Amino acid sequence: MKKILLASGDSYTDPNFISDFHPDLDTSWPMWPELLADKLDMQCVNLGKSGAGNEYIYSSLLDYITDPNLKKEDIGLVVAGWSQIQRKDYQTGQSGRWTNMRIDPHGDAFSLASKSLRYYLSFQIMCERYKLNYLQVQMINFHSDFLGGLRYGANQFNIEKEKIIKYPYDKEKDKLRVYNSILNNDYRINHKKFIGWPIAKELGGFTLGAKNSPIFPNGDLSFKISELDEHPNALGQRMIAEYIHDRLG
After folding, report:
1. What's 201's domain CATH number?
2. HEC states along the chain?
């Protein structure tokens, strides 16, 4: 029986991803978890969900790993493809179905960043507790989109195509507070198991899916769906899988 490659993330990971900007586009290409699993000869379990925040990503992995019916030795690798700090995840209905909001109305960038960093550390502790091989990846921008102003999505274009959701607090002050929060966790995080740490380019880190990441040269759209939709296309997904694979050791 093949080992399991367990992954979770947001729309960069979701196997059922549909482009908001190009809803008629066929986006059924394999996502990076499936491609990585093929390279490692593993069975892929992909829990990615479009729009997800870090609470969902952590919780989905926690629930799967701690399932009493699961043999921990069946898991060969766990990869968390982390999302953005401002997203709010919550469960609804009798089944506890996960859904999300684009912006958590309760908290500034510092408090939301601190909460996400606790998920990162808790994920690390959980994997080490169960002796699981794991990797963390900051897949999309941790805080900078929130602070810089979020662009409305295509399904919100009835408002105003280029309308920006402005950060409602002190941008410069909170940017420094976010950096301090990341640095205060530096000694806690296993750098060898976290691609891009310390996750902010100003601190010497990077975001794997960002336009200026090691695999997506700035301005090169050949890895992206389009100028409007910066999600990775089929080639971009292969690049992500290859980059992660080459850093597994």
Report:
1. 3.40.50.1110
2. CCCEEEEECCCCCCCCCCCCCCCCCCCCCCCHHHHHHHHHCCEEEECCCCCCCHHHHHHHHHHHHCCCCCCHHHEEEEEEEECCCCCEEEEECCCCEEEEECCCCCCCHHHHHHHHHHHHHHHHHHHHHCCCCEEEEECCCCCHHHHHCEECCHHHCCCCCCCEECCCCCHHHHHHHHHHHHHHCCCCCCHHHEECCCCCHHHCCCCCCCCCCCCCCCCCHHHECCCCCCCECHHHHHHHHHHHHHCCC
